[in-house]
Design goal:
single chain, about 290 residues, alpha/beta, TIM Barrel, 8-stranded parallel barrel, two-stranded antiparallel sheet, about 45% helix, globular
Amino acid sequence: MSSILGQRLVFGAGGAVAGLTAAATLDLARSADELGFDLFTLSDHLHSTRPTVEPLTALAAIAARTERIEIGTNVLGLPYRNPAVLAKTAETLDAISGGRFVLGLGGGGFDEEFTAFGLTERTPGGKIDAQREAVGIMRDLWAGGPGDLDGAHFTVRGARIDPLPAHPIPIWLGSYGPRALALTGELADGWLPSMGRIGLTEAVARRARVHAAAEKAGRDPSALTCATNLLVRVDPSRTPTPELVAGTPRAVAGQLIEIARAGFTAQLLSLPTVADQELVAKEVLPRVRDHLA
């Protein structure tokens, strides 16, 4: 079962990295495993102007070639996949990885991708409703089913999967709007925004909305993992911006410490090369861990 729970300080790699071949992606994941990163995630852009990998296929290969690092999706675009099929895929991927899988799920933020593939297009409100239905279907099937739902977006009748997952598979939602944040607090195991899209001040405010929704639903907010995607460059010539964590190793560590103190304790760092991962693992992360220990 995933050990990335609640407010534990963890660091991820991969994430928003794109433009890599399948072989380069595998090298990056194996390096992250060896360097002690906690999580390796892949984004889900099947229709893109740059080379991409299909994340679930790639993560299965990564699971077979790594020892301890957890693996996750960051985040799946729901229109690409039927949730009942995704429930089975996730069960298999979790079993292959020895319980190391975290399912990140989004409603689908880039409509042009789904239009290009001839897939379902939904209104902003419809995307949130579809996420709610999808989470319910997957958890129902993981709990033994049979799944039955005649929803506005999905229909399942007597659906089953076998075997069942050996433990609960965490679901993190990539959400931003008020209704989506409320859904995250009500149902999800974690919240996964990208800091570059909203900035730290706004991220803190939206985190409070997630926690308020969790409390309203009778849940413990501290049990939710608050993660974030971060673009990181260790380069003294680079100036940090709301979209970029940058500077010397000491300066980068200071920015990550500030983000962790703001409540984002699962930090998923976009590092494009093995050399970048090595530099951060050796020169930055020990400073952060020591400071926050």
